[in-house]
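Why do we care about 3D structure at all? Because function follows from shape, and shape follows, mostly, from sequence. That is the central idea of this module. The next example makes it concrete: a single protein chain, its amino acid sequence, and then its structure expressed as tokens.
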Amino acid sequence: MRVLIAGSSGFLGTALRERLAERGHDVVRLVRREAGPGESSWDPYAGRLDQEVVDTADVVVNLAGAPLLGNPHSGAWARRLRESRVVTTRLLAEAVARSHTSGVGGHPAYLAQNGSGWYGDHGATVLDEEAGTRGDAFFTELTRAWQDATTPAVDAGARVCVMRTPPVVDRRNPPFKQMWPLFRLGLGGRVGDGRQYFPVISTRDWVAAATHLVEGEGSGPFNMCCPTTPTHREFTDALAQRLGRRARLSVPARLVDVAAGRFGSEVVSSFRLEPAALQADGFEFADEDVRDVVATAARG
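And the structure:
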């Protein structure tokens, strides 16, 4: 298959395109510079995209988005986060809707990255893909707009998968790249009382799940998380123990709410996700729980 990927130079984009190429797929990268072999140039903010490269694709994958790390008190940072996700998603969705030359139903399939924060804080309630969204937290509202941007492709009848992705735990991937040495020094700890649920996934399972969706026939939202969602305390304990330390410290929730600005409520909110749609679609996880995820991350 020919797979067109936006955001192919990021951590997950690089891992996915390498896996797809290993499996024999023809991967075309969307780049915001002069295109080289296997690439196509685009400018999503100017609305510039080569329609032909979408028309000849079997699957379009959008992983584009500004990094989450930054100043959460900055309005410019918030706008970049939103626009880099919503604008790119909508432009590609509109191009998929216009395309009639390949893919299921005359259109390429469309896989659109999203976030697990879409659900909003649900406490200890188990959340499969049928659960609703609630609350007005910054990232929850952003993910709603992000998902809504896929509407042109959905309305056109394309196969659309919305990948609701939580933190991907890997010592090479921010913010865990910054967290790893702190935990190694015994300076890691939980946020608040640690009872909030904190969905995670390993890099290998995220890449395998995304590949499964590229090659499969599933559609709709997919929780891209390990089957058993840990609490934040369980996550920090698993990481500290893996590094031979104890997670003794804690950061008061009220302090996080102030320091993290727009992200404050996200950090202390609880998202007890389960990947029901992936499992129903026949996907098998290599890493079932947080200890497996952390062990895999430590080997990465």
